[in-house]
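Duplicate of #3305? Posting structure anyway:
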């Protein structure tokens, strides 16, 4: 079992920045690949960024590439998502997710991620 708790959401104007953080517990952190997903009202949950257990492999959705950076601190059991140049279409609930493996393996579908946090709201105003 993995428990995930997100923080850092909020309201920001277009062009602004936010940093989301997720704290994990319950499993050897380095053995756990982590990701951020988001879900806008009326839309399916979509992959934003992912990072392997050791941090050596990262993956981004095309929509956020160049604007977001995912990082992890295996000493603190945290994974962060730095989001810059935010756009109104980035609005949604952002979820931290974990897999029971250290590998990303290109898994961007929600069905490949077993553990989920409750989410944190990000709202970008135009």
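Output from current build:
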């Amino acid at each position: 079992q993995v428990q995930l708790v997100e923080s850092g959401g909020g309201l920001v104007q277009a062009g602004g920045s936010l940093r989301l953080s997720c704290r994990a517990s319950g499993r050897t952190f380095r053995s756990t690949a982590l990701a951020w997903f988001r879900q806008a009202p009326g839309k399916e949950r979509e992959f934003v960024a992912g990072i392997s257990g050791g941090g050596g492999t990262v993956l981004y959705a095309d929509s956020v590439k160049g604007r977001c950076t995912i990082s992890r601190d295996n000493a603190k059991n945290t994974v962060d998502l730095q989001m810059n140049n935010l756009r109104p279409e980035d609005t949604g609930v952002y979820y931290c997710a974990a897999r029971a493996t250290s590998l990303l393996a290109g898994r961007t579908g929600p069905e490949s991620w077993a553990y989920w946090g409750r989410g944190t709201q990000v709202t970008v105003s135009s």
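Confirmed duplicate; merging threads. The CA atoms of residues 48 and 63 lie 8 Å apart. The first strand starts at residue 3 and ends at 7.
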